[in-house]
Amino acid sequence: MKSLRKLLLLALLAVSGLCQGASLPAKDNGKQTLTSPDGHLTMHFFLSTNGRPTYDLSYKGKAVIKPSFLGLELKSGDKNFSDLQTGFTLDNTKTSSFDETWKPVWGETRTIRNHYNELFVSLKQEKNQRGLNIRFRLYNDGLGLRYEFPLSPNLNYFTIKEEHTQFAMAADNTAWWIPGDYDTQEYNYTKSKLTEIPVKWPHSFDGNASQTLAGPTCVQTSLQMKSPDGLYINLHEAALVDYSCMHLNLDPKTLTFESWLTPDARGDKGALQAPCTSPWRTIMVSDDARNILASNLILNLNEPCKIKDTSWIKPTKFVGVWWEMITGKSQWSYTNDLISVQLDSIDYTKVKPHGHHGANTENVKRYIDFAADNGIGAVLVEGWNIGWEDWFGHEKDYVFDFVTPYPDFDIKYLNEYAHSKGVKIIMHHETSASVRNYERHMEAAYSLMNKYGYDAVKSGYVGNILPRGEHHYGQWMNNHYLYAIKEAAKHHIMIDAHEAVRPTGLCRTWPNLIGNEAARGMEYDAGAGLSVNHTTILPFTRLQGGPMDFTPGIFCMDLSKVNPNNHNHVHSTLCRQLALYVTMYSPLQMAADLPENYAKYMDAFQFIKDVAVDWDDSRYLEAEPGSYITAARKAKGSANWFVGSTNGETPRTSVIRLDFLDKGRKYKATIYQDAEGCDWQHNPEHYVISTKTVTNKTVLKIHTGNGGGYAVSLIAE
Length: 717
Description:
By secondary structure, this protein is α+β, with helices and mostly antiparallel strands. The protein has a domain at about 20-300: Beta-galactosidase, Chain A, domain 5 (Distorted Sandwich), CATH 2.70.98. Helix content is about 15%, strand content about 30%. The strands form six sheets. Strands 1, 8, 9, 10, 11, 14, 15, 17, 18, 22 and 23 form an eleven-stranded antiparallel sheet that branches. It has an eight-stranded antiparallel sheet with strand order 2-3-4-5-13-20-19-16, with no helix packed on it. It contains twelve helices and 38 strands.
């Protein structure tokens, strides 16, 4: 009996230790099991017969990821030494649980719950006397896993030849994807079965200022899929720091994706120094599409905020001298006299202006006045600085100095004028992808912004990266983007980076990263075009890693009315443009059209004036990737809600319950909807505005056409 009691006591102590995160010696290649806090997701980890790390994942008993291998291949002359994939034995495992609630500086909700169960696996590779650790975190909404490289004599400085993280899909899922590319994400999405990717891939892209396609079965993250049995699955990465951006290479025969890292100028996939970690590889899973949109998995896998005083970080709306250049009405440059610019030797006061420079003092004043009159907080000015005459396509090193204005842009006067009207100017730093040049001038550029009270900058990286051979999404550039964010934080400057790497949740750690482009945005409807369903896909893909500066708010769809030489047409109704302020989350929202176009529709513009940019709560009411999204958000520090719905190609009637409103309270609902017979091709600017009193028991039914949408403001009475 004493022996039995002793055994029972030991067993209880073991269970107690497991709950507290104690280390347990692993036995043989025994399977480790991890479940999500709600029990819906189950992951297994084990070693294959050749000592290869392996995992699988299921949701409510349905297979999501079949047994998939983990590991890396290192660059080494020794074939055995380069293998960081096989020959492992289990050293120990450790399980733990974590549950906290944290407050983002800005975001879709006032608080975020970070609740997961964790499995930490320590592996040994006896033949090479080195180790590899893998950490798994299983949330109710998905799985995160990463490699951790402990320092050892045989794993110190090392180069990645390829990372071999696999995602063996359990079925031939439908996917919404863009082709793998080391330099751009600015593509329309293709919808297809996984097995159809090789056939459709050659037709999935068009031209770009910089592009390096990765291969005929390679796609980019965030990758959204839907399984035949109704599971929504999303593959992405989180906390991309000092590492190359991950693509996914598909084996269409086995339906297995494998990580495919962006190479550097030498073709290597990463240069690391132990101890260090990889980014998290993420798998979101749900049987409800709305849960994918509401997921905070990516943010939760990033480190907490590293900025002590965040009081200077302010979400805002802005207008700007931009759309008139995008449409061709105006130009960034100042003169046609210069075909070659050497910044230190050219006197712009002695050249002839071509008369189409958009960033001139009087024109910028017009935008400042419009912003002030309509409660818009800021004005973005592009093309204010010298050097735009030969900025593009020459891979030029010293292309801009970021401090010297053109003769017709009075930086001091305009800044004082804007501030006198309660408006700030947003700086613009186009680097032309000459990164070394930008870093040389960064301190002077940020100091100039401090001098004039600019607290936000839109940066751009158009063209091929300098130094030559580097890519936009390689380790070297990812380190640069983070360097710019950190340096900007020292100067209390917010960053809106365009043509940068797709976000991976770093805005939690560095909330001065207040915006990103990193996808095909509104500007493409002034040229190559956006697919009609584009805005019903982006929240499932690009926005998983952070907000997007999509630049919505276009009211004039026939662009020949802006520029007679531009015959393109925006693929949207006016009301869908309003909806995007809700469905395309961003704490930095542009009203992108020209003031004169807004002047024609000021009753509709009222929604842009009213809608918030920071939120206490968000609810996704309807969602299906590629078809429609309807979102409701509660303004920060207010009882007011705003609803937006974006629709794809198929007309539908949206039915939404307002049960998220406060019980017992009345709201004034102002509904902005497409007029009868309106879609993106026919009468896109025709709309109907109606008002009614609603409560949490009200049900709204609103019809939307092809490329249509609607917006609703709900103001508490």
